[in-house]
Protein: Dihydrolipoyl dehydrogenase family protein
Organism: Nocardioides hankookensis
Amino acid sequence: MTDTDRRPVDPVDVVVLGLGAGGEHAARKLAEAGLRVVAVERDLVGGECPFYGCTPSKLMIHAAHEGRGLGRAATRIREANHDWSDESHAGPLEEAGVRIVRGHGRLAGQGRVEVAGTTYDARLGVLLDTGTEPTVPPVDGLAGTPYWTNREVMREVEAPESMVVLGGGPIGCELAQAFARFGTRVTLVEAEDRLLGPEEPEAAEVVTRVLRAEGVDVRVGSELSRVEHDGGFVLEVGGEVLSAERLLVAVGRTPNLADIGLETVGLSPDADHLTTDEWLRAGERLWAVGDITGRGAFTHVSLYQAKVAVRDLLGQGGSGADYRAVSRVTFTDPEVGAVGLTEAQARDAGLTVAVGRADIPQAARGWINEAEGIVKVVADRDRGVLVGGTVVAPYGGEVVGLLSAAVHAAIPVETLRGMHYAYPTFHRAIAAALSDL
Ligand SMILES: Cc1cc2nc3c(=O)[nH]c(=O)nc-3n(C[C@H](O)[C@H](O)[C@H](O)COP(=O)(O)OP(=O)(O)OC[C@H]3O[C@@H](n4cnc5c(N)ncnc54)[C@H](O)[C@@H]3O)c2cc1C
Ligand SMILES: NC(=O)c1ccc[n+]([C@@H]2O[C@H](COP(=O)([O-])OP(=O)(O)OC[C@H]3O[C@@H](n4cnc5c(N)ncnc54)[C@H](O)[C@@H]3O)[C@@H](O)[C@H]2O)c1
């Protein structure tokens, strides 16, 4: 008998391992349904979004948009997350009857999780929501310097004089613009040949133009090859030497899968995501939700998946997960709202594609507001429905809601063309894009 075999085994119904948005939701719902739920968290209950992600970044963006300083954003960030205390997340879970166990949990065979010396044996199974960590690229000299990731930057109260942002994805673009508006001299370095790689090239074009017009030095197709820090950062970028007070690394995320005992249930700990079926099942008595499923690293996806997994665990049936109309928003100004497939993805999927475009400055509201942006819709000609769309505009993340409904419900393009579109609104540009199809 090994030491592990002698450890106490605690029978429960479900173990939730990792309390990101989806895990938190699932744990509460399952406990409210009367199940014995143990929820394991090694850091803050609620995960990345409220403490280091969506909420603090959007508070920074809002303060910057209003012409307020980082100090104002910092105050509201502390108000929102109670100075990085998770009581407002953990409390409601405990009230619902969830037993929260603090520590790093690992699977210990089918339906079993080991944490802090106790093994929990889950009658129904384990739901994983272990999320991601910031990726740190293997750049010469980077390790050991006081670079920031999204974890550190959200705690800052004073904007630096200068900053290099590494990575032109949503995090890099959102924070580059916010800090430029706080008065920081920002250089944005992207390795690929454009910003916001997975989104429509037309969207990246607008965001690049706007960032440059606001003074951000946007460098695409550019690599950081060396870093030194001695009071400030000295960075070798594309053969040129730059200096900056701060360096923000935002080059993507690494899933927390390597050290959670996946090998004990026959899965690879080296995987970059877990494959799940329509009920979010990743194996026998095993469910997975959130960023680790690779179906879109967004809070609303994690929550959506958790709802489906909970119905499955409770045997309630209904519809399985459907990802045709996943929407997402990059909260630059203008915002990039998008849903479903891009033109390139639709072509790769073998669809007979039709594309319609409209320029926001040509729409009455765009001209009135002197706004930048575009609308692009992607249709499946054979079915006569939209399969994707992008709105880059002020409130683009709100305007795209109309396209989300259209893609989700497969509303015929002819029906969309026959709708009323209030004058003069930004969403009226969608009618122009539909006429261009
Ligand atoms: C700067 C930034 C801005 C963002 N903005 C947006 C936005 O505007 N909109 C949007 O939809 N999304 C946004 N996101 C993405 C969003 O934060 C994630 O998609 C969301 O947090 C969902 O993550 P999750 O459910 O996969 O888990 P996470 O939030 O990553 O949480 C996972 C939890 O599991 C815990 N954990 C991991 N391993 C273990 C273990 N072995 N034992 C115990 N606990 C463990 C971790 O401590 C963590 O608390 C942003 C992300 C960042 C970084
Ligand atoms: N508004 C939102 O919904 C929102 C906001 C922020 C983050 N997120 C989520 O968090 C995830 C992570 O965001 P992210 O922006 O860190 O990652 P990302 O993977 O979306 O983008 C990272 C960017 O960094 C570039 N890159 C990679 N290595 C590089 C290097 N060595 N030098 C320069 N550039 C390099 C990539 O080409 C890419 O453009 C996103 O995929 C998104 O789903 C969402």
